[in-house]
Q: What sequence folds into this?
C-alpha cells in the first residue's frame, strides 16, 4: 500500500494516541511533506498532521520529534534561498506543521520555554531568508511560503512562552515580508495581518504599533530614494499600502487607524 493509499484509508477510522500506525507513518510523512503532488502534500500529509495535533493523537515525544525535524535544515531551511524549484513546498508545509504544533502546545504546555523561544528565532530567520514567494503554482498547488510563514509566526507569537520583549523582532519580520520586491496577490497581506492581531492579543501598546507603521512608511521612503520610480518600488509600495488598508479594517485602535490614514494620504499626495 502506498503512503497516499494508507493516509486515505486512515480517514475511515478514529485514530487514538496509542495507534501504532502513527509512529510508523511519521517519518514517511515527513519525508514527503514537500511532494509536488498537492493531493499528497496538502490534502493528505499536512491535513493528517494537523488533525492528529488538534485531536491529541500525538504524544509529547512525537510532537517534540516533529518540531525538531521540521525546524531543521532538511525541512524549514531546505535549500533556503532557492527560487522556482520544488524545495519551497518542503519549507512552506513544514512551517504549517510547526504552526499546528505551536497551536496545540498553547493548550498542552509540554514544550520547554526555551524550545518555543528557539522556534520563534527559527521562524524569524526563515521569513527573512525565504526568497521563493510564489502563491499558487500551476499543476502543483499552493506554495504560499509567506502566507504559511505568517501563520507560523502568528501561532508562535500567541504562545504563552513568547514575551512581548520580542515584539520588535516580530514586527521586523512582518516588515521584511512586505519588502520582498514582489506584489502579493494571494491574500498574503491578510495572513500577515494576523500577526498584528496576535501582538494586540498579547498586549502590545498602541503607541508601539503606531511607531512601527511610521517606520515602515519611512523605509518605503528610503526604498524610493534607492530604487527611484522602478517596478520594484511600485510593487513594494502596493504591498505596504494593501497591508496598511487590511490592518485598518481589522483593528479598532483609533490612534493606529489615524496613523494609517495619514500614511496612505501622504503616499497618495506624493505619487499622484
A:
Amino acid at each position: 500500500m502506498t503512503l497516499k493509499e494508507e493516509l486515505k484509508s486512515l480517514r475511515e477510522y478514529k485514530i487514538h494516541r496509542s495507534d501504532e500506525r502513527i509512529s510508523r507513518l511519521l517519518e514517511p510523512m515527513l519525508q514527503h511533506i514537500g511532494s509536488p503532488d498537492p493531493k499528497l502534500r496538502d490534502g493528505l500529509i499536512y491535513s493528517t498532521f494537523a488533525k492528529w495535533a488538534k485531536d491529541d493523537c500525538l504524544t509529547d515525544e512525537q510532537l517534540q520529534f516533529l518540531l525538531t525535524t521540521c525546524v531543521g535544515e532538511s525541512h524549514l531551511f531546505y535549500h533556503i534561498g532557492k527560487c522556482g524549484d520544488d524545495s519551497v513546498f518542503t519549507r512552506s508545509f513544514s512551517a504549517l506543521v510547526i504552526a499546528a504544533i505551536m497551536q496545540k502546545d498553547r493548550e498542552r504546555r509540554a514544550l520547554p520555554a526555551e524550545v518555543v523561544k528557539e522556534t520563534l528565532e527559527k521562524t524569524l530567520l526563515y521569513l527573512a531568508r525565504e526568497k521563493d514567494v510564489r502563491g499558487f503554482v500551476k499543476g502543483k498547488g499552493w506554495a504560499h511560503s509567506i502566507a504559511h510563514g505568517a501563520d507560523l509566526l502568528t501561532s508562535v507569537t500567541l504562545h504563552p512562552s513568547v514575551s512581548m520583549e520580542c515584539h520588535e523582532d516580530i514586527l521586523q519580520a512582518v516588515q521584511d515580508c512586505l519588502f520582498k520586491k514582489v506584489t502579493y496577490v494571494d491574500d498574503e497581506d491578510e495572513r500577515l495581518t494576523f500577526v498584528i492581531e496576535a501582538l494586540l492579543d498579547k498586549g502590545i501598546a498602541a503607541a508601539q504599533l503606531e511607531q512601527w507603521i511610521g517606520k515602515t512608511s519611512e523605509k518605503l521612503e528610503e526604498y524610493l530614494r534607492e530604487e527611484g520610480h522602478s517596478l520594484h518600488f511600485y510593487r513594494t509600495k502596493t504591498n505596504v499600502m494593501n497591508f496598511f488598508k487590511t490592518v485598518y479594517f481589522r483593528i479598532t485602535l483609533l490612534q493606529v487607524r489615524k496613523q494609517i490614514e495619514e500614511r496612505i494620504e501622504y503616499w497618495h499626495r506624493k505619487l499622484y
The chain has two domains: 1-162, 166-186+205-272. The two ends are 62 Å apart (CA to CA). Residues 166-186+205-272 form one domain.
